[in-house]
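COMPLEX REQUEST
Ligand: zinc ion
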Amino acid sequence: MRANETPATRLATRKLRAASQRATAARVAVLATLIEQGEHSSAEEVLARSQARLPELTRSTVYRTLERLRDLRIVSETDLGGGVRHFEVIEAVPHHHLVCTGCGAIIELADQSIEPLRREIERAHGFQPAIDHLAVFGRCAHCQ
Ligand SMILES: [Zn+2]
Ligand SMILES: [Zn+2]
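STATUS: Structure written out below.
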Protein backbone atom coordinates (compact mmCIF):
# COMPACT_ATOMS: atom_id res chain seq x y z
CA MET A 1 0.00 0.00 0.00
CA ARG A 2 1.22 3.46 -0.91
CA ALA A 3 -0.73 5.73 1.37
CA ASN A 4 1.24 8.93 1.23
CA GLU A 5 2.87 9.05 -2.16
CA THR A 6 4.28 12.48 -2.96
CA PRO A 7 6.76 13.82 -5.53
CA ALA A 8 9.46 13.38 -2.85
CA THR A 9 8.62 9.73 -2.20
CA ARG A 10 8.52 9.02 -5.93
CA LEU A 11 11.94 10.64 -6.38
CA ALA A 12 13.26 8.73 -3.35
CA THR A 13 12.03 5.45 -4.86
CA ARG A 14 13.72 6.27 -8.17
CA LYS A 15 17.03 7.14 -6.48
CA LEU A 16 16.98 3.88 -4.48
CA ARG A 17 16.22 1.75 -7.55
CA ALA A 18 18.93 3.56 -9.54
CA ALA A 19 21.35 2.44 -6.79
CA SER A 20 19.97 -1.15 -7.05
CA GLN A 21 18.39 -0.86 -3.60
CA ARG A 22 14.98 -2.11 -2.55
CA ALA A 23 12.64 0.83 -1.92
CA THR A 24 11.56 -0.21 1.57
CA ALA A 25 9.11 1.99 3.47
CA ALA A 26 11.86 3.05 5.89
CA ARG A 27 14.35 4.01 3.19
CA VAL A 28 11.71 5.89 1.19
CA ALA A 29 10.54 7.77 4.31
CA VAL A 30 14.06 8.84 5.33
CA LEU A 31 15.18 9.80 1.83
CA ALA A 32 11.92 11.62 1.00
CA THR A 33 12.36 13.58 4.23
CA LEU A 34 15.81 14.73 3.11
CA ILE A 35 14.56 15.52 -0.41
CA GLU A 36 11.74 17.67 0.98
CA GLN A 37 14.05 19.39 3.42
CA GLY A 38 16.32 20.42 0.53
CA GLU A 39 19.15 21.50 2.83
CA HIS A 40 21.27 20.08 5.63
CA SER A 41 19.37 18.30 8.33
CA SER A 42 20.80 16.99 11.55
CA ALA A 43 20.21 13.31 12.24
CA GLU A 44 17.75 14.33 14.98
CA GLU A 45 15.74 16.48 12.55
CA VAL A 46 15.63 13.63 10.07
CA LEU A 47 14.50 11.29 12.84
CA ALA A 48 11.64 13.58 13.92
CA ARG A 49 10.42 14.27 10.37
CA SER A 50 10.74 10.66 9.23
CA GLN A 51 8.73 9.48 12.24
CA ALA A 52 6.05 12.07 11.46
CA ARG A 53 5.82 10.41 8.04
CA LEU A 54 6.10 6.81 9.23
CA PRO A 55 5.42 6.54 12.99
CA GLU A 56 6.70 2.98 13.39
CA LEU A 57 10.26 4.02 12.46
CA THR A 58 12.68 3.56 15.34
CA ARG A 59 15.70 5.71 16.04
CA SER A 60 18.09 2.87 15.19
CA THR A 61 16.33 2.21 11.86
CA VAL A 62 16.55 5.88 10.89
CA TYR A 63 20.24 6.11 11.86
CA ARG A 64 21.08 2.84 10.08
CA THR A 65 19.19 4.00 6.98
CA LEU A 66 21.05 7.33 6.95
CA GLU A 67 24.36 5.50 7.15
CA ARG A 68 23.38 3.16 4.34
CA LEU A 69 22.28 6.08 2.12
CA ARG A 70 25.60 7.74 2.91
CA ASP A 71 27.57 4.60 2.01
CA LEU A 72 25.65 4.46 -1.29
CA ARG A 73 26.59 8.14 -1.87
CA ILE A 74 22.94 9.10 -2.22
CA VAL A 75 23.32 11.46 0.74
CA SER A 76 26.34 13.16 2.26
CA GLU A 77 27.24 13.26 5.95
CA THR A 78 29.14 16.30 7.16
CA ASP A 79 30.11 17.68 10.52
CA LEU A 80 29.35 21.40 10.17
CA GLY A 81 30.74 22.08 13.64
CA GLY A 82 29.81 21.13 17.16
CA GLY A 83 30.11 17.42 16.39
CA VAL A 84 26.57 17.32 14.94
CA ARG A 85 26.19 15.11 11.89
CA HIS A 86 24.31 16.77 9.05
CA PHE A 87 22.84 14.90 6.11
CA GLU A 88 21.91 16.20 2.69
CA VAL A 89 20.95 14.65 -0.66
CA ILE A 90 23.92 14.77 -3.03
CA GLU A 91 23.05 16.80 -6.11
CA ALA A 92 24.50 16.28 -9.59
CA VAL A 93 26.88 19.18 -8.91
CA PRO A 94 28.19 18.94 -5.33
CA HIS A 95 28.68 21.97 -3.12
CA HIS A 96 30.86 22.51 -0.06
CA HIS A 97 31.07 24.86 2.89
CA LEU A 98 33.44 27.17 4.69
CA VAL A 99 32.54 27.17 8.38
CA CYS A 100 33.74 30.03 10.60
CA THR A 101 34.78 28.82 14.05
CA GLY A 102 34.48 32.41 15.35
CA CYS A 103 30.88 33.35 14.52
CA GLY A 104 29.51 30.11 13.09
CA ALA A 105 28.88 31.60 9.63
CA ILE A 106 28.54 28.98 6.88
CA ILE A 107 29.62 30.10 3.41
CA GLU A 108 28.90 28.00 0.33
CA LEU A 109 31.93 26.89 -1.68
CA ALA A 110 31.49 25.93 -5.35
CA ASP A 111 32.65 22.51 -6.43
CA GLN A 112 35.08 23.99 -8.96
CA SER A 113 37.22 25.19 -6.02
CA ILE A 114 37.60 21.54 -4.94
CA GLU A 115 38.23 20.00 -8.37
CA PRO A 116 42.01 20.76 -8.42
CA LEU A 117 42.31 19.11 -4.97
CA ARG A 118 40.55 15.98 -6.23
CA ARG A 119 42.84 15.77 -9.24
CA GLU A 120 45.98 16.32 -7.16
CA ILE A 121 45.00 13.61 -4.64
CA GLU A 122 44.34 11.18 -7.46
CA ARG A 123 47.63 12.08 -9.20
CA ALA A 124 49.78 11.92 -6.08
CA HIS A 125 48.22 8.88 -4.39
CA GLY A 126 46.27 7.01 -7.07
CA PHE A 127 43.35 7.55 -4.72
CA GLN A 128 39.89 8.66 -5.83
CA PRO A 129 38.57 10.89 -3.04
CA ALA A 130 34.81 10.96 -2.44
CA ILE A 131 34.58 14.69 -1.75
CA ASP A 132 30.80 15.00 -1.97
CA HIS A 133 30.24 17.66 0.63
CA LEU A 134 33.26 19.16 2.31
CA ALA A 135 33.31 21.42 5.37
CA VAL A 136 36.43 23.56 5.75
CA PHE A 137 36.78 25.15 9.18
CA GLY A 138 38.51 28.49 9.62
CA ARG A 139 37.96 32.19 10.19
CA CYS A 140 35.68 34.41 8.10
CA ALA A 141 36.71 37.88 6.92
CA HIS A 142 35.03 39.54 9.93
CA CYS A 143 36.54 37.26 12.58
CA GLN A 144 40.19 37.40 11.50
ZN1 LIG B 1 25.75 21.68 2.03
ZN1 LIG C 1 33.20 34.55 11.49
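REMARKS: The chain has five helices and six strands. Residues 40, 88, 95, 97, 133 surround zinc ion (ligand 1) (CB under 6 Å).
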